From TrEMBL:
It catalyses: small RNA 3'-end nucleotide + S-adenosyl-L-methionine = small RNA 3'-end 2'-O-methylnucleotide + S-adenosyl-L-homocysteine + H(+). Gene3D superfamilies: Hen1, N-terminal domain (3.30.1610.20), Vaccinia Virus protein VP39 (3.40.50.150). Belongs to the methyltransferase superfamily. HEN1 family. It comes from the Bacteria. SUPFAM superfamilies: S-adenosyl-L-methionine-dependent methyltransferases. This is Small RNA 2'-O-methyltransferase. GO terms for molecular function: metal ion binding; RNA binding; small RNA 2'-O-methyltransferase activity. The keyword Methyltransferase applies. Its EC number is 2.1.1.386. CDD domains: AdoMet_MTases. One of its GO terms (biological process) is RNA methylation. Its cofactor is Mg(2+). InterPro entries: 3'-RNA_MeTfrase_Hen1_bac, Hen1, Hen1_N, Hen1_N_sf, Methyltransf_12, SAM-dependent_MTases_sf.
Amino acid sequence: MLLTISTTHSPATDLGYLLVKHPDRVQSFETTGGTAHVFYPRADVERCTVALLLEIDPVELARPAKGHHGSALGRYVNDRPYVASSLLSVALGKVFRSALNGTSRDRAELADTAIPLEIEVPAVPCRGGGAIVERLFAPLGWTVTTTTVPLDPEFPDWGDSPYIQLRLTGTLRLADALNHLYVLLPVLDDAKHYWVDQDEVDKLLRAGDGWLGDHPDRELIARRYLAGRRSLTQSALERLRGVDEQAEDVDAPADAVERAEAAERRTPLVRLRTAAVLAALAESGAARVLDLGCGPGALLLALDAEPRYTRIVGADVSAAALAIAERRLKFDRKSDRQRARLTLIQTALTYHDDRLRGFDAAVLMEVIEHLDEARLPALERAVFGHAAPGAVIVTTPNVEYNARYETLDGHRHHDHRFEWTRAEFAAWSARVAETFGYTVDLRPVGDLDQELGSPTQLAFFRRAA
Protein backbone atom coordinates (compact mmCIF):
# COMPACT_ATOMS: atom_id res chain seq x y z
CA MET A 1 0.00 0.00 0.00
CA LEU A 2 1.20 3.48 -0.85
CA LEU A 3 0.70 7.03 0.41
CA THR A 4 2.37 10.18 -0.90
CA ILE A 5 2.58 13.66 0.64
CA SER A 6 3.67 16.63 -1.47
CA THR A 7 4.22 20.32 -0.80
CA THR A 8 5.08 23.40 -2.83
CA HIS A 9 6.16 25.35 0.24
CA SER A 10 9.37 27.23 -0.50
CA PRO A 11 11.83 25.67 -0.10
CA ALA A 12 9.85 22.48 -0.56
CA THR A 13 12.70 20.32 0.73
CA ASP A 14 11.91 21.58 4.23
CA LEU A 15 9.41 18.70 4.21
CA GLY A 16 12.37 16.42 4.97
CA TYR A 17 13.16 18.40 8.13
CA LEU A 18 9.55 18.21 9.29
CA LEU A 19 9.40 14.44 8.75
CA VAL A 20 12.97 13.88 10.01
CA LYS A 21 13.65 11.82 6.89
CA HIS A 22 16.45 12.83 4.51
CA PRO A 23 15.40 13.15 0.85
CA ASP A 24 18.62 11.51 -0.37
CA ARG A 25 18.10 8.29 1.54
CA VAL A 26 15.71 5.36 1.35
CA GLN A 27 14.83 4.27 4.87
CA SER A 28 13.04 1.12 6.03
CA PHE A 29 11.25 0.39 9.31
CA GLU A 30 9.79 -2.83 10.66
CA THR A 31 6.14 -2.35 11.55
CA THR A 32 3.04 -4.43 12.19
CA GLY A 33 2.72 -7.12 9.55
CA GLY A 34 5.61 -5.99 7.37
CA THR A 35 8.10 -3.26 6.45
CA ALA A 36 7.55 0.46 5.80
CA HIS A 37 9.81 2.17 3.27
CA VAL A 38 10.22 5.96 3.05
CA PHE A 39 11.66 7.60 -0.05
CA TYR A 40 11.32 10.81 -2.09
CA PRO A 41 10.24 10.52 -5.76
CA ARG A 42 10.94 14.25 -6.09
CA ALA A 43 12.82 16.68 -3.87
CA ASP A 44 13.72 20.17 -5.08
CA VAL A 45 13.01 23.72 -3.98
CA GLU A 46 9.78 23.97 -6.04
CA ARG A 47 8.15 20.70 -5.06
CA CYS A 48 8.89 17.86 -2.68
CA THR A 49 7.08 14.52 -2.50
CA VAL A 50 7.60 11.84 0.14
CA ALA A 51 6.26 8.32 -0.34
CA LEU A 52 5.41 5.82 2.39
CA LEU A 53 5.30 2.31 0.93
CA LEU A 54 4.08 -0.41 3.26
CA GLU A 55 5.17 -3.88 2.22
CA ILE A 56 3.04 -6.48 3.97
CA ASP A 57 4.30 -9.95 4.85
CA PRO A 58 1.25 -12.20 4.27
CA VAL A 59 2.64 -14.94 6.52
CA GLU A 60 3.23 -12.51 9.36
CA LEU A 61 -0.22 -10.99 8.88
CA ALA A 62 -1.86 -14.42 9.07
CA ARG A 63 -0.50 -15.15 12.53
CA PRO A 64 -3.36 -15.35 15.06
CA ALA A 65 -2.04 -12.46 17.16
CA LYS A 66 -2.09 -10.08 14.21
CA GLY A 67 -5.78 -9.39 14.10
CA HIS A 68 -9.27 -10.38 13.16
CA HIS A 69 -10.44 -10.78 9.60
CA GLY A 70 -13.97 -12.05 10.20
CA SER A 71 -13.30 -15.74 9.53
CA ALA A 72 -10.55 -18.32 9.57
CA LEU A 73 -10.21 -18.03 5.80
CA GLY A 74 -10.11 -14.25 6.13
CA ARG A 75 -6.70 -14.51 7.74
CA TYR A 76 -5.32 -15.72 4.42
CA VAL A 77 -7.64 -14.18 1.81
CA ASN A 78 -7.98 -10.42 2.34
CA ASP A 79 -7.05 -7.06 0.83
CA ARG A 80 -4.76 -5.92 3.66
CA PRO A 81 -1.49 -5.94 1.64
CA TYR A 82 -2.91 -3.69 -1.07
CA VAL A 83 -5.13 -1.01 0.47
CA ALA A 84 -4.80 1.83 2.97
CA SER A 85 -6.12 0.63 6.32
CA SER A 86 -5.28 0.57 10.01
CA LEU A 87 -1.98 -1.08 9.03
CA LEU A 88 -0.98 2.09 7.20
CA SER A 89 -2.20 4.17 10.13
CA VAL A 90 0.07 2.25 12.50
CA ALA A 91 2.97 2.71 10.09
CA LEU A 92 2.33 6.47 10.01
CA GLY A 93 2.45 6.57 13.78
CA LYS A 94 5.75 4.72 13.92
CA VAL A 95 7.60 6.24 10.96
CA PHE A 96 6.49 9.88 11.35
CA ARG A 97 6.04 10.04 15.12
CA SER A 98 7.71 13.41 15.72
CA ALA A 99 5.85 14.98 12.78
CA LEU A 100 2.55 13.63 14.16
CA ASN A 101 3.37 15.29 17.47
CA GLY A 102 4.07 18.58 15.70
CA THR A 103 7.71 18.78 16.79
CA SER A 104 10.77 19.56 14.68
CA ARG A 105 14.25 20.20 16.06
CA ASP A 106 15.43 21.97 12.90
CA ARG A 107 12.22 23.71 11.73
CA ALA A 108 10.21 24.33 14.91
CA GLU A 109 8.51 27.46 13.55
CA LEU A 110 7.56 25.72 10.30
CA ALA A 111 6.06 22.82 12.23
CA ASP A 112 3.52 25.31 13.63
CA THR A 113 2.81 26.82 10.18
CA ALA A 114 0.11 25.80 7.69
CA ILE A 115 1.72 24.86 4.38
CA PRO A 116 0.24 23.74 1.02
CA LEU A 117 -0.15 19.95 1.02
CA GLU A 118 -1.30 17.31 -1.43
CA ILE A 119 -1.96 13.78 -0.22
CA GLU A 120 -2.67 10.85 -2.53
CA VAL A 121 -3.64 7.29 -1.70
CA PRO A 122 -4.29 5.05 -4.73
CA ALA A 123 -6.46 2.44 -3.00
CA VAL A 124 -8.67 3.14 0.01
CA PRO A 125 -11.38 0.74 1.19
CA CYS A 126 -14.36 2.97 1.74
CA ARG A 127 -17.64 1.76 3.19
CA GLY A 128 -20.02 4.55 2.24
CA GLY A 129 -18.31 5.64 -0.99
CA GLY A 130 -16.99 9.04 -1.97
CA ALA A 131 -19.77 10.86 -0.11
CA ILE A 132 -18.50 9.75 3.28
CA VAL A 133 -14.95 10.81 2.37
CA GLU A 134 -16.28 14.32 1.73
CA ARG A 135 -18.17 14.24 5.03
CA LEU A 136 -15.07 13.25 6.96
CA PHE A 137 -12.34 15.38 5.36
CA ALA A 138 -14.07 18.52 4.02
CA PRO A 139 -14.95 19.95 7.48
CA LEU A 140 -11.23 19.80 8.30
CA GLY A 141 -10.31 22.16 5.48
CA TRP A 142 -9.45 19.62 2.76
CA THR A 143 -10.51 19.77 -0.86
CA VAL A 144 -11.47 16.17 -1.61
CA THR A 145 -11.21 14.36 -4.93
CA THR A 146 -12.22 10.70 -5.17
CA THR A 147 -12.26 8.26 -8.07
CA THR A 148 -13.98 4.91 -7.77
CA VAL A 149 -11.79 1.98 -8.77
CA PRO A 150 -13.51 -0.46 -11.18
CA LEU A 151 -13.44 -4.15 -10.38
CA ASP A 152 -11.75 -4.78 -13.70
CA PRO A 153 -11.20 -2.13 -16.40
CA GLU A 154 -11.40 -4.88 -19.02
CA PHE A 155 -14.90 -5.86 -17.88
CA PRO A 156 -16.86 -2.65 -17.13
CA ASP A 157 -20.10 -4.61 -16.74
CA TRP A 158 -18.75 -6.02 -13.51
CA GLY A 159 -19.21 -2.59 -11.95
CA ASP A 160 -17.17 -0.76 -9.34
CA SER A 161 -15.08 -2.10 -6.50
CA PRO A 162 -15.46 -0.91 -2.89
CA TYR A 163 -12.20 1.02 -3.27
CA ILE A 164 -11.45 4.62 -4.20
CA GLN A 165 -8.45 6.65 -5.25
CA LEU A 166 -8.16 9.53 -2.79
CA ARG A 167 -6.60 12.96 -3.29
CA LEU A 168 -6.61 15.65 -0.62
CA THR A 169 -5.39 19.22 -1.10
CA GLY A 170 -5.28 21.99 1.45
CA THR A 171 -3.17 24.38 3.48
CA LEU A 172 -2.68 22.88 6.92
CA ARG A 173 -0.02 22.10 9.47
CA LEU A 174 1.71 18.86 8.57
CA ALA A 175 0.97 17.51 12.05
CA ASP A 176 -2.75 18.14 11.57
CA ALA A 177 -2.71 16.43 8.18
CA LEU A 178 -0.97 13.34 9.55
CA ASN A 179 -3.34 13.10 12.51
CA HIS A 180 -6.34 13.36 10.19
CA LEU A 181 -4.97 10.41 8.19
CA TYR A 182 -4.04 8.47 11.33
CA VAL A 183 -7.64 8.56 12.55
CA LEU A 184 -9.69 8.63 9.36
CA LEU A 185 -8.03 5.91 7.25
CA PRO A 186 -9.24 3.17 9.66
CA VAL A 187 -12.60 4.97 9.86
CA LEU A 188 -13.06 4.77 6.07
CA ASP A 189 -12.10 1.09 6.12
CA ASP A 190 -14.33 0.49 9.17
CA ALA A 191 -12.06 -2.36 10.29
CA LYS A 192 -8.95 -2.87 12.40
CA HIS A 193 -6.35 -5.57 12.24
CA TYR A 194 -5.83 -5.71 16.01
CA TRP A 195 -7.86 -5.96 19.19
CA VAL A 196 -9.40 -2.66 20.30
CA ASP A 197 -9.37 -1.77 24.00
CA GLN A 198 -9.42 1.31 26.23
CA ASP A 199 -5.98 2.35 24.99
CA GLU A 200 -7.56 3.07 21.61
CA VAL A 201 -9.77 5.72 23.21
CA ASP A 202 -6.64 7.51 24.42
CA LYS A 203 -5.08 7.24 20.95
CA LEU A 204 -8.22 8.64 19.33
CA LEU A 205 -8.45 11.63 21.65
CA ARG A 206 -4.74 12.32 21.40
CA ALA A 207 -4.74 12.26 17.58
CA GLY A 208 -8.07 14.11 17.46
CA ASP A 209 -6.97 16.92 19.77
CA GLY A 210 -8.03 20.27 18.35
CA TRP A 211 -10.30 18.97 15.57
CA LEU A 212 -12.34 15.90 16.50
CA GLY A 213 -14.43 17.72 19.11
CA ASP A 214 -15.68 20.17 16.45
CA HIS A 215 -16.26 17.57 13.73
CA PRO A 216 -19.93 17.22 12.69
CA ASP A 217 -19.47 13.43 12.31
CA ARG A 218 -17.48 12.83 15.46
CA GLU A 219 -19.90 10.11 16.67
CA LEU A 220 -19.45 8.15 13.45
CA ILE A 221 -15.67 8.63 13.62
CA ALA A 222 -15.50 7.43 17.22
CA ARG A 223 -17.70 4.40 16.59
CA ARG A 224 -15.81 3.23 13.53
CA TYR A 225 -12.37 3.97 14.95
CA LEU A 226 -13.26 1.96 18.06
CA ALA A 227 -14.51 -1.00 16.00
CA GLY A 228 -18.14 -0.47 16.98
CA ARG A 229 -17.57 -1.19 20.68
CA ARG A 230 -20.36 0.72 22.37
CA SER A 231 -18.75 1.16 25.78
CA LEU A 232 -15.54 2.54 24.27
CA THR A 233 -17.47 4.82 21.90
CA GLN A 234 -19.55 6.19 24.74
CA SER A 235 -16.40 6.76 26.81
CA ALA A 236 -14.75 8.67 23.96
CA LEU A 237 -17.80 10.85 23.35
CA GLU A 238 -18.19 11.65 27.03
CA ARG A 239 -14.54 12.68 27.25
CA LEU A 240 -14.91 14.79 24.12
CA ARG A 241 -17.89 16.58 25.61
CA GLY A 242 -15.86 17.23 28.73
CA VAL A 243 -12.78 18.73 27.06
CA ASP A 244 -14.17 20.35 23.91
CA GLU A 245 -14.52 24.09 24.44
CA GLN A 246 -13.77 25.13 20.87
CA ALA A 247 -17.16 25.04 19.15
CA GLU A 248 -19.08 27.84 20.86
CA ASP A 249 -20.25 29.27 17.57
CA VAL A 250 -20.12 26.19 15.31
CA ASP A 251 -23.08 23.83 15.37
CA ALA A 252 -21.81 20.26 15.45
CA PRO A 253 -24.80 18.07 16.42
CA ALA A 254 -23.80 15.53 19.07
CA ASP A 255 -26.56 12.92 19.16
CA ALA A 256 -26.22 9.83 21.31
CA VAL A 257 -24.39 6.68 20.29
CA GLU A 258 -27.62 5.03 19.14
CA ARG A 259 -28.10 7.74 16.52
CA ALA A 260 -24.55 7.25 15.29
CA GLU A 261 -25.11 3.50 15.01
CA ALA A 262 -28.29 4.08 13.02
CA ALA A 263 -26.86 6.83 10.81
CA GLU A 264 -26.03 4.51 7.94
CA ARG A 265 -29.33 2.61 8.11
CA ARG A 266 -31.62 5.64 7.73
CA THR A 267 -31.45 9.23 6.60
CA PRO A 268 -29.46 11.23 9.19
CA LEU A 269 -31.37 13.92 11.08
CA VAL A 270 -29.05 16.63 9.77
CA ARG A 271 -30.14 15.82 6.21
CA LEU A 272 -33.82 15.74 7.14
CA ARG A 273 -33.40 19.11 8.83
CA THR A 274 -31.69 20.62 5.80
CA ALA A 275 -34.38 19.22 3.51
CA ALA A 276 -37.12 20.71 5.71
CA VAL A 277 -35.44 24.12 5.66
CA LEU A 278 -34.98 24.03 1.88
CA ALA A 279 -38.64 23.04 1.44
CA ALA A 280 -39.77 25.99 3.56
CA LEU A 281 -37.50 28.35 1.62
CA ALA A 282 -38.94 27.10 -1.67
CA GLU A 283 -42.44 27.58 -0.29
CA SER A 284 -41.61 31.16 0.66
CA GLY A 285 -40.53 31.95 -2.90
CA ALA A 286 -37.35 33.58 -1.62
CA ALA A 287 -34.54 34.49 -4.01
CA ARG A 288 -32.32 36.42 -1.56
CA VAL A 289 -31.47 34.31 1.50
CA LEU A 290 -29.56 34.78 4.77
CA ASP A 291 -28.01 31.82 6.59
CA LEU A 292 -27.60 33.27 10.08
CA GLY A 293 -25.19 31.36 12.29
CA CYS A 294 -24.01 29.51 9.19
CA GLY A 295 -21.12 27.78 10.99
CA PRO A 296 -18.87 25.76 8.65
CA GLY A 297 -21.31 26.10 5.76
CA ALA A 298 -23.38 22.91 5.61
CA LEU A 299 -26.58 24.70 4.58
CA LEU A 300 -24.68 27.15 2.36
CA LEU A 301 -23.47 24.22 0.24
CA ALA A 302 -27.09 23.23 -0.40
CA LEU A 303 -28.17 26.81 -1.10
CA ASP A 304 -25.25 27.38 -3.48
CA ALA A 305 -26.36 24.36 -5.50
CA GLU A 306 -29.83 25.86 -6.08
CA PRO A 307 -29.94 28.34 -9.00
CA ARG A 308 -33.23 29.79 -7.67
CA TYR A 309 -31.25 31.76 -5.06
CA THR A 310 -29.79 34.89 -6.64
CA ARG A 311 -28.21 36.28 -3.46
CA ILE A 312 -26.89 34.20 -0.55
CA VAL A 313 -25.20 35.53 2.58
CA GLY A 314 -23.71 33.35 5.31
CA ALA A 315 -23.20 35.15 8.62
CA ASP A 316 -21.45 33.91 11.75
CA VAL A 317 -19.62 35.39 14.73
CA SER A 318 -16.83 32.79 14.43
CA ALA A 319 -14.00 33.63 12.04
CA ALA A 320 -12.78 30.03 12.26
CA ALA A 321 -16.15 28.68 11.17
CA LEU A 322 -16.29 31.13 8.26
CA ALA A 323 -12.80 30.08 7.16
CA ILE A 324 -13.94 26.45 7.03
CA ALA A 325 -17.07 27.45 5.11
CA GLU A 326 -14.96 29.38 2.62
CA ARG A 327 -12.82 26.31 1.96
CA ARG A 328 -15.82 23.98 1.69
CA LEU A 329 -17.50 26.34 -0.76
CA LYS A 330 -14.28 26.53 -2.82
CA PHE A 331 -14.23 30.32 -2.94
CA ASP A 332 -10.78 30.24 -4.52
CA ARG A 333 -12.32 28.62 -7.62
CA LYS A 334 -15.33 30.91 -7.96
CA SER A 335 -15.63 33.63 -10.58
CA ASP A 336 -16.34 37.25 -9.65
CA ARG A 337 -19.99 36.74 -10.60
CA GLN A 338 -20.25 33.68 -8.35
CA ARG A 339 -18.59 35.53 -5.49
CA ALA A 340 -21.09 38.37 -5.89
CA ARG A 341 -23.92 35.84 -5.52
CA LEU A 342 -22.50 34.17 -2.40
CA THR A 343 -20.97 36.19 0.45
CA LEU A 344 -19.66 35.38 3.92
CA ILE A 345 -19.69 38.03 6.65
CA GLN A 346 -18.65 38.02 10.30
CA THR A 347 -21.25 39.53 12.60
CA ALA A 348 -22.99 38.94 15.91
CA LEU A 349 -26.68 38.12 15.56
CA THR A 350 -27.55 40.04 18.70
CA TYR A 351 -26.54 43.40 17.13
CA HIS A 352 -28.21 45.43 14.40
CA ASP A 353 -26.32 45.02 11.13
CA ASP A 354 -27.53 46.91 8.06
CA ARG A 355 -25.85 44.34 5.81
CA LEU A 356 -28.59 41.87 6.78
CA ARG A 357 -31.47 44.07 5.64
CA GLY A 358 -33.42 43.66 2.41
CA PHE A 359 -33.55 39.85 2.15
CA ASP A 360 -36.51 37.65 1.26
CA ALA A 361 -35.78 35.01 3.90
CA ALA A 362 -33.44 34.21 6.78
CA VAL A 363 -32.57 30.83 8.31
CA LEU A 364 -31.58 30.18 11.92
CA MET A 365 -30.84 26.46 11.74
CA GLU A 366 -29.84 25.04 15.15
CA VAL A 367 -28.64 28.47 16.30
CA ILE A 368 -30.86 29.90 19.03
CA GLU A 369 -30.03 27.15 21.55
CA HIS A 370 -26.38 28.29 21.47
CA LEU A 371 -27.34 31.64 23.03
CA ASP A 372 -28.12 32.30 26.66
CA GLU A 373 -31.88 32.70 26.94
CA ALA A 374 -31.35 36.20 28.36
CA ARG A 375 -29.79 37.23 25.02
CA LEU A 376 -32.67 35.96 22.87
CA PRO A 377 -34.60 39.27 22.97
CA ALA A 378 -31.55 40.99 21.43
CA LEU A 379 -31.48 38.41 18.63
CA GLU A 380 -35.22 38.82 18.10
CA ARG A 381 -34.89 42.59 17.71
CA ALA A 382 -31.87 42.27 15.40
CA VAL A 383 -33.35 39.60 13.12
CA PHE A 384 -37.13 40.06 13.19
CA GLY A 385 -37.12 43.79 13.93
CA HIS A 386 -34.08 45.33 12.22
CA ALA A 387 -33.22 42.90 9.39
CA ALA A 388 -36.93 42.11 8.96
CA PRO A 389 -36.79 39.54 6.12
CA GLY A 390 -40.00 38.42 4.46
CA ALA A 391 -39.68 34.96 6.04
CA VAL A 392 -37.67 33.47 8.89
CA ILE A 393 -37.10 29.74 9.39
CA VAL A 394 -35.95 28.59 12.83
CA THR A 395 -35.04 25.04 13.87
CA THR A 396 -34.07 23.86 17.35
CA PRO A 397 -33.97 20.52 19.24
CA ASN A 398 -37.06 19.16 20.96
CA VAL A 399 -35.81 18.32 24.45
CA GLU A 400 -38.71 15.91 25.05
CA TYR A 401 -37.35 13.62 22.32
CA ASN A 402 -34.06 13.25 24.21
CA ALA A 403 -35.70 10.52 26.25
CA ARG A 404 -35.31 8.28 23.18
CA TYR A 405 -31.51 8.59 23.47
CA GLU A 406 -30.86 6.23 26.35
CA THR A 407 -27.15 7.07 26.70
CA LEU A 408 -27.60 10.82 26.38
CA ASP A 409 -26.90 12.64 29.63
CA GLY A 410 -27.76 16.32 29.33
CA HIS A 411 -28.10 18.37 26.16
CA ARG A 412 -27.41 17.01 22.69
CA HIS A 413 -24.40 19.29 22.29
CA HIS A 414 -22.04 20.55 24.95
CA ASP A 415 -22.54 24.18 23.87
CA HIS A 416 -26.35 24.21 24.02
CA ARG A 417 -27.44 26.77 26.62
CA PHE A 418 -30.98 25.40 26.63
CA GLU A 419 -33.26 22.97 24.82
CA TRP A 420 -37.00 23.62 24.71
CA THR A 421 -40.08 21.48 24.93
CA ARG A 422 -42.65 21.76 22.14
CA ALA A 423 -44.84 23.95 24.33
CA GLU A 424 -41.95 26.29 25.16
CA PHE A 425 -40.96 26.64 21.50
CA ALA A 426 -44.58 27.24 20.49
CA ALA A 427 -44.98 29.95 23.13
CA TRP A 428 -41.75 31.69 22.06
CA SER A 429 -42.71 31.50 18.38
CA ALA A 430 -46.18 32.93 19.00
CA ARG A 431 -44.80 35.82 21.04
CA VAL A 432 -42.15 36.69 18.44
CA ALA A 433 -44.69 36.53 15.59
CA GLU A 434 -47.11 38.81 17.40
CA THR A 435 -44.42 41.28 18.46
CA PHE A 436 -42.84 41.74 15.02
CA GLY A 437 -45.81 41.29 12.70
CA TYR A 438 -45.36 37.72 11.42
CA THR A 439 -47.53 34.65 11.18
CA VAL A 440 -45.95 31.35 12.26
CA ASP A 441 -46.40 27.69 11.31
CA LEU A 442 -44.81 24.98 13.51
CA ARG A 443 -43.59 21.77 11.83
CA PRO A 444 -41.94 18.53 13.03
CA VAL A 445 -38.64 17.37 11.52
CA GLY A 446 -37.46 13.76 11.74
CA ASP A 447 -39.06 10.59 13.05
CA LEU A 448 -42.36 11.49 14.71
CA ASP A 449 -42.96 9.87 18.09
CA GLN A 450 -46.63 9.90 19.11
CA GLU A 451 -45.74 10.70 22.71
CA LEU A 452 -42.61 12.83 22.44
CA GLY A 453 -42.92 14.49 19.03
CA SER A 454 -40.03 14.82 16.57
CA PRO A 455 -36.32 15.28 17.37
CA THR A 456 -36.22 18.71 15.71
CA GLN A 457 -38.91 21.40 15.70
CA LEU A 458 -39.23 24.04 12.99
CA ALA A 459 -40.97 27.40 13.03
CA PHE A 460 -41.79 29.00 9.67
CA PHE A 461 -42.39 32.74 10.16
CA ARG A 462 -43.89 34.84 7.33
CA ARG A 463 -44.40 38.56 7.46
CA ALA A 464 -48.09 39.37 7.76
CA ALA A 465 -49.69 41.22 4.83
